[in-house]
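Design a sequence for this backbone.
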């Protein structure tokens, strides 16, 4: 929270005794350098509330001691790679309010110590069944594009879901003040369709 500008220097990789990075609330405008993800000795990574962009790395198997990965309010784009499931020691994964799209990979189930998964505020469109993850204590999925089929198997795990981004066809219902409004919530389920 020092209002740094520009970007994270690639020379940060020379800080071989660094265990934690806490770089949020700055004015970064450049992508996170590839060298940052070469610091596989890190135990805690906090990035965000800035305009830095980039993609999540695919070398999580090389982070044996990573306990916290929190990237929020940044412009991390693309998808959560299946290699995320190789961060075997990770209990704390926060990726809210980025620009992530696509699927949450099935390999998330391979994180035996994952306790907190926060992915709200993206445009993710598939959530695997996480019901076998006994360690998971916090699951926040609001403001994505998950369907009823994604949410149902995870219903008992979901800590917060204040709604999903609308997609596809929708119907607008108009009403007038002081007039009763009755809605029939039944829908005709059509095979091959997705429902929110």
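Sequence:
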């Amino acid at each position: 929270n020092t209002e740094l500008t520009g970007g994270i220097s690639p020379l940060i990789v020379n800080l071989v005794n660094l265990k934690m990075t806490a770089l949020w609330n700055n004015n970064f405008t450049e992508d996170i350098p590839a060298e940052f993800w070469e610091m596989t000795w890190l135990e805690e990574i906090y990035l965000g509330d800035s305009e830095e962009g980039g993609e999540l790395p695919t070398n999580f198997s090389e982070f044996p001691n990573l306990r916290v990965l929190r990237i929020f309010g940044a412009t991390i784009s693309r998808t959560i790679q299946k290699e995320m499931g190789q961060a075997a020691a990770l209990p704390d994964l926060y990726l809210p309010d980025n620009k992530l799209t696509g699927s949450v990979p099935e390999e998330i189930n391979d994180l035996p110590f994952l306790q907190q998964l926060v992915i709200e505020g993206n445009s993710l469109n598939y959530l695997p069944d996480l019901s076998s993850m006994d360690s998971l204590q916090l699951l926040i999925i609001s403001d994505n594009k998950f369907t009823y089929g994604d949410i149902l198997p995870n219903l008992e795990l979901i800590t917060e879901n204040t709604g999903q981004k609308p997609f596809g066809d929708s119907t607008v219902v108009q009403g007038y003040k002081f007039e009763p409004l009755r809605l029939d919530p039944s829908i005709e389920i059509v095979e091959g369709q997705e429902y929110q």
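Helices lie at 148-151.
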